[in-house]
User: Fold this.
Amino acid sequence: MSTQAEVPFTFVLPKEKAPKPKAIVIAGLIKENPTLKMVLGCCPTLAVTTAAPNGLGLGLATALVLTMSNFVISLLRNVIPDKVRIPSYIVIIAGFVTIIMYVLKAYFPALDKSLGIYIPLIVANCILLARAEMFASKFGPFSSALDGLAMGLGFTIALFSIATVREILGNGTWFGIPMTPHFFSPAVLLILPPGGFLAFGIVMVIMNYLTRGKVGGDVACATCNPENSHCAPDSILGGK
Assistant:
């Protein structure tokens, strides 16, 4: 009878390879646009997009927080215990949101007053926690920061587009400048809550129409492993 201790079999998952920068940018801006494709962050999207400056301001603030939090979470991904990773992500995100909030109060008081509670509520934006869990916790700092920037800019484009539609058609202005004084009377409905859903739908339809057939369902998402057989062609992902 052998006295040698049996060594239990362990299966080690292969280390995931970070997607190429081109794939990350395409995913954040178009293929996985967090608002127009994934339909995330709808509460601030509908609430603050009554004017173009509001949409642009909240979008850029969210993009900054998303980029910086992704970078830090990626740096700490091997240090944070798995059981407390979600609270840790929230604390990191909240720290950057606090910085952005005080910067806005100090240098952009009008924008801060206009956005109100939606600046601190960036902490609760599901886009940030989703990218932390799906991307930053798996890949390196550079790729994670780029993913945060791309997703943040995608969110900014969505907010700015919806806000532009609502302000021009609903108020007849753009950044406060009269745009339609002699063409038509503004449709006030568009700057009211029901108009938010209508403008959201219009921009989403335009986005899907312009991107159909160009970045379709066969293109891999930014969190896919490009070596998998079901992923996109190398020409799209920036490969060979």
Summary: The two ends are 56 Å apart (CA to CA).
